[in-house]
Specification:
2 copies of one chain form a homodimer.
Chain A lengths: L1 E7 L4 E7 L5 E5 L6 H10 L3 E6 L11 H8 L2 E5 L8 E3 L4 E4 L2 E7 L8 E5 L2 E5 L2 E2 L2 E2 L9 H12 L7 E4 L9 E2 H7 L8 H10 L8 H9 L12
Parallel strand pairs in A: 3-4, 4-5, 5-6, 10-13
Antiparallel strand pairs in A: 1-2, 2-3, 7-8, 8-9, 9-10, 11-12, 13-14
Helix pairs in contact in A: 3-5
Chain lengths: ~230, ~230
C-alpha cells in the first residue's frame, strides 16, 4: 500500500492518499480545493490513477476539491448518505469500498456532524473531525451532538485494536498521527471521562463559528463546485 | 521502531521522534524551542526516555530546544564537528549513533551549511535542509556552497536505494515525505540537471535573509540556550 499524508497549512487540514502499488489505483481522502494542483501533480509523478475521492463529512472550514478531481480524472466521489447531494456513491456503516486490491471499511461516527464517517484501511483509521489527536471535533453546528460523538468514539473507534493508527482531519499542534491506545489513555476529553462529563465540557466551550462556514458548507454540498454568480437580467 | 513526525507551523519545520520500542529509549531530530513542552509531554505519554538529540545543522530559521531538553532529560546532544561548540558528541561521515537497539548512520551532506548532516535509520533518511521535497536548501549563507550541495545530494543521497524514505527538515507545500527514487526523478533542481546548471540556478535566486538569522545562529551555536541579558554594572 502506498500512503501519503498531505497538509493544507491555511486550514490545518490533512488530506490522505492511499494507493494499491500493484494496480496503481488511488484514493484521496478529504482533498482541499486550494491544493488540487499539488495533488494532481503528485498523482502523476507517482504514476497513479485516481479512482475514488472519499469525504469524511461535509466540511465547514475548507472547500473540497472533489468535484474538480471528478471532472479532471473521472474519479467517483464517496461519502455518507446523510450528507452532500452531489456524491456519486453514498455509503453507510459496514460498507466496504475498494481501491484496487485495498479494502476501505466505512464506519459511521456522527456527532461532529450528522454525516461524519471514519474510514479503516489496513490498520490505518481516518477519523475526519470525529476523533482528533488529544481532542475531538466540535459539536455546535451542522447537527452536531456531543452525546452522539462520545458514543461514536467510545463504541466504534475505541473498540479497535490499540495499535490502530489514527489519522485525523486536522491537527493544530503539529502532531501527524496517534493510535487508538494513545487516545483511549491520553485524550483529555475522553480518558476516564463519563458521557455526561464530555457533554458538559463540549457545551461549556464558547467558540466562534468557523470562518468559512457560510461559504464552505453550501460549496461542499456541491462537492466543492462553487456556484457561478447569477446574472441579474 | 516507534516513529513520529512533528511539525512547527510557524517555521514549517519538521521534528522527528525515533524510539526503540523494546528499551523505550528515544531520540529527537531537530526539535524546536517553542515546541519543547509538546515534545516532552509526548515522550511521557508514550513512556519513552529521551537519550539523544540529533541536530542536522546549525539552523538559521528557528531555535533548537536541544539545551533545554538536555537539562530536563539528561539527553546527549549530537551534531557535526563542524558546527555548534555546545554539542556533547561531535560526529562525522560514517559514524553510527545508537538509540537502544536502533542504529543511526551519519552522512555528511554539506552545501546548505558547512556542518549539514543527514541521518539514516532503517530505510528512513532525515535530510535536514540538504535535500527537500522537490527542492533543496538554500546556499547563500553560513558557508553554503551550491556545488558542494549538488555533490552531497547526488553522491551520498541519490546513491541510496529508490525506496529510501526522505524526511526533510522543512516543507512549505504540505508534503510530509518523499523517496530517493521520487527526488532523483522529479526534483526540478536536480533531475536531469548538471552540476553547473544547479550552481547557476542557486546563484540566480535572490532571497531575503531568513527572518531569524541574526538571532537563531548564535542561539543554536549554544544549543538554543539564549543568553541572559548582561547587567551593566
Amino acid at each position: 500500500m502506498l500512503f501519503r499524508q498531505l497538509f493544507d497549512a491555511e486550514t490545518s487540514s490533512y488530506t490522505y492518499l492511499l494507493a494499491d502499488e500493484a494496480t496503481r489505483e488511488a484514493a484521496l481522502i478529504d482533498p482541499v480545493l486550494e491544493q488540487v494542483e499539488r495533488d494532481l501533480k503528485l498523482l502523476t509523478e507517482l504514476g497513479l490513477k485516481l479512482v475514488l475521492v472519499l469525504e469524511t463529512h461535509v466540511h465547514a472550514d475548507h472547500i473540497t476539491s472533489a468535484a474538480v478531481l471528478r471532472e479532471r480524472t473521472g474519479a467517483t466521489v464517496v461519502a455518507s448518505a446523510r450528507g452532500a447531494p452531489c456524491v456519486d456513491r453514498k455509503v453507510g456503516h459496514g460498507d466496504v469500498v475498494r481501491v484496487g486490491g485495498l479494502e476501505v471499511k466505512v464506519l459511521e461516527t456522527p456527532g461532529h456532524t450528522d454525516d461524519s464517517l471514519s474510514f479503516l484501511c489496513e490498520g490505518r483509521l481516518f477519523t475526519g473531525d470525529a476523533l482528533l489527536i488529544r481532542a475531538t471535533g466540535r459539536t455546535d453546528f451542522q447537527n452536531g451532538d456531543a452525546g452522539q460523538l462520545y458514543d461514536s468514539i467510545t463504541r466504534h473507534l475505541f473498540s479497535l485494536p490499540d495499535d490502530t493508527v489514527v489519522y485525523p482531519g486536522h491537527d493544530y499542534a503539529g502532531h501527524a498521527l496517534s493510535t487508538i491506545g494513545e487516545e483511549r489513555n491520553h485524550n483529555p476529553r475522553l480518558a476516564g471521562k463519563t458521557r455526561d462529563a464530555f457533554i458538559a465540557f463540549m457545551k461549556d466551550r464558547k467558540l466562534p463559528p468557523p470562518k468559512k462556514l457560510d461559504v464552505a458548507v453550501p460549496a461542499n454540498r456541491a462537492c466543492g463546485r462553487v456556484a457561478e454568480p447569477r446574472a441579474h437580467s
